[in-house]
Structure formats: C-alpha cells, structure tokens
Amino acid sequence: MLVLRLLVLCAFLTVINAPSVKALTLLRDPDIEYALKQLAAPVLKAAGLSPTRIDILVIDDRRLNAFVVDSNSIFIHSGLLLKMKNAAMLQSVLAHEAAHIANGHLVRRPVAARNARTAAGLGAILAAAAAVAAGGSEAAGAVALGAQNTARRLFLVHTRAEENSADNSGMRYLARAGIDPQGAVDVIDIFRGQEALSAARQDPYARTHPLSSDRYRLVKRLADGYKDKARPNPQADYWFTRAKGKLSAFQRSPKWTLTRAGETGYADVKLMRQAVAHHRNTNLKKALTAIDGAIGQRPKDPFLHELRGQILIESRQTKAAVAAYARAANLAPKNALILGAYGRSLLVSGQTRKAQQFLEQARARDGRDARVLRDLAAAHAKQGNNGMASLVTAERYAMQGRLKDAGIHAQRASDLLPRGSGGWQRAQDVLFAAQAARKRK
User: Which residues lie in coiled coils (predicted)?
Assistant: First the structure.
C-alpha cells in the first residue's frame, strides 16, 4: 500500500471476466493536484476552457498514458508524470488532452457512464480505462460499462483524424501560453515505434492515441513554427519539479530519494522530499526536522503543513497532527482533500462532531473520496446516527464496485431513515444500482 497520504479510490466496476485486467486507482494528494492545476491553467485558458472546472487527476499506474472521457477531468498515469523531464513536456500532454475536450471529440461518443465528478461515473471510467490500457477483452470492458458496444469504441481511443486535430490545436494552445513547443516533440519521441509492437507490449498511450510518422512530422513542423513564442516560466518549472519530486519520493525507495533530493534546485522541495523519505524510514525526528525546514522557507504553504500532519498522524502523534491539519485548513479552507484530512485527524482525536463538520465540507466539495465516506460513516455511527452511517457506507461500497454489499447497507439505511427524506432517497438510488447489477448477471 502506498504510504503517500494520496487517497486511494478504487474503481467502481471491476472489469468482468478479465482476470488479467486490474482496476485502476486514483492517487489523491492536495499538493500534487494543486501543482498540476498550476501547470494546466495557462493551457486551459488558451483553449478557452475554465481552469477551475477541469480537474487533473493522477492514476496509480506506472505505464504511460493520459486520457479524457468527459469535459471535466484529464487523467494522467503516474508513470507518465514521472517520465516527463520538464514542465513543457507535461504541459504539451495536457494541451493535447485539452484539445480533445475543446474540439468536441467526446460529445460525439455515447459514453455509458455518468459525469466523472460523480463516484459512479468515475468508477466506470476507471474500469473501462483498465480494460483498454491492459489491451485485454474489449467485451469485458463493455460489460463493465453496462454498454452494448466495446469499451474501446466508447471510451478513450481516438481516431487518427482526432489526433491530428488535437495536435494542431494543442500546439496552438502552447504557443498562445508561451510554452516551449519542443516539449510536444519530446513526448512523441518517447512513443515512436510503438505501433510496430504487439498490443501486449505497447504503452497504453500508443493504443489510445494512434501514432504515426506523419503525426511526428506534423508536430515537429508546428514546433519549429511556434518556437519563437516560447517564454521562460519559473513558476511552471517550480510546480512541475514539486509535483514530480513528491510523487517520486513516495513511489521510489527512501534511499533513492535521499541521494537525489537536492537535484531539484529548490531548497523547499529538497527538504520536502527528505521529509517523505525519512518518514518512510520511520525516523520521525529527521522527518519533522526536514518538513519544518521546508515550512520555514514557505510558512504560508498549506500543503507543507498538510504533509506535516500526515507525518504526525501516521506516527501516532494525534494532538500535534490535529494542529498541523488545522493550520493547513486555515490556509486552504476550500481544499477538499485538506478538509478531509483535518476531519480524519479530529475523528481520531475523539472530536466527533467537529470531525463530521469538516468531513461534510470535504464531501460537498469533492464526492469522489472513498476515505472521507468511510470516516463520515464512522462519525455518524459514533453519534448513534445508524441510518446515516449505513447510507454513507452503502455509497462507499457502490463507489468501490461492491454493489452486493452496497445493497445490503442501502436496505438497512432505507429501513432506518424517515421515508421520503433526502437520505432515504439516496438509499433508493443505491438500491436501484445494486438491483440493476444483479439483473445483469
């Protein structure tokens, strides 16, 4: 299990009859997601899209891929993020995916899933993505979606015409944003020759984004034409380094991180990476010294205080963790992941009512966090609200694809909650989904 307090959200529907396909999971970390938002903002603005509306979400998969399935989210594999060498490369990927949204490539697809901002919609998306990325049974992916056509045709895979359109638009967005277009050439260089490989050996990106020598020549020609538009952007360089640095600190060995922590060139990022490595080595004293050093460099950075809270709560220093998370929440009162973490620490400390308050706020801002639902159910149960505890548990199981368990808890909630109330209605929704799943079997 990843030590990173990246909150893991399981796929809603596991691909059926495809044992070689594993459901994808999301890595949720407020620092990394904020950094990716900063990198995406100029690209999205150039595309005429709202940076506040579109989320950049990281999937825990070391293979290389990025994709969109609706107009609200861009998904990027952790492996691709770690493969990128600079901000321009990552921004070129984001520009390409933004172009698929802006050019309406998704509107023409009858996707059999709800919006990715909902738990069920997100789960269906991850299940389909797992099927396509694995190169396995297309029919299995379609069953997971509850669709009649194949997952590949419904989801993810773009035509060559769409790819050429996205390349043209994406390169234009980079130019408008003043981002070095050579980054796009460097990304395509990674995947050149993939089409000559068997499907089992291809990176998922090559399967979902058809590659060709013509595409490479087009991108190279556009990059040459736009290269005079590039402008230095120290902020983009910083946030790219920080996102990649934190992710690698949790996914690589502590020894690897400690020997390379200073390569970033940023003192606070170096200290943050050292803090993660020492924490993973269970050296609390060194971890706190490092994270406090980083906070000394950026005292009003909510994400460094959040990391301090994580280190403390995972080291069973509950009181100090609550204080760290409180500081983070005060600095970032609208960040759902920080609010959820603060609520969790309050719950552990026995402050149940206050915990519920912050957990409810977190859920209202981002309903895709299964861990918040688990904690919220515990808060309801501790206060004797068994009907609401069963309801939230049912919703969490539904999010994770455990529809049989979801149905059991939804029925319990339905029996306990006042008939016709909002909670009772939510329980009926889960019961309907569970019953529909049984009928499909």
Answer: none
The amino acid occupying position 45 is K
| C-alpha torsion sign, points 307, 312, 316, 318 | negative
Specify whether 211 is located in the same domain as 341.
no
User: What is the average pLDDT score of the chain?
Assistant: 83
Domain range for residue 215? 7-234
Q: Which of 13-22, 51-60, 99-108, 166-175 has the lowest mean pLDDT?
A: 13-22
Q: Are 321 and 191 within one domain?
A: no
Please return the burial class of 319, using the count of CB atoms within 10 Å of its CB with bins 0-12, 13-18 and 19+: exposed
Please state, in angstroms and rounded to a whole number, the distance separating the CA atoms of residues 289 and 318. 18
Separation CA 71–CA 12 (nearest Å): 20
| Total-model pTM | 0.84
Closest by CA position to 246, among listed 272, 284, 207: 272
**What is the count of structural domains for the chain?**
2
- Give the model confidence (pLDDT) of 321-351 as tens digits: 999 999 999 999 999 999 999 999 999 999 9
List C-alpha distances in Å: 337 to 28, 111, 341, 391.
8, 28, 6, 22
pLDDT tens-place string over residues 91-138 = 999 999 999 999 886 665 544 444 555 555 555 556 555 555 555 433
38 and 158 in a single domain? The answer is yes
Q: What H or E segment, with its residue span, contains residue 67? A: strand 66-68
How far is 305 from 21, CA to CA, in rounded Å? 38
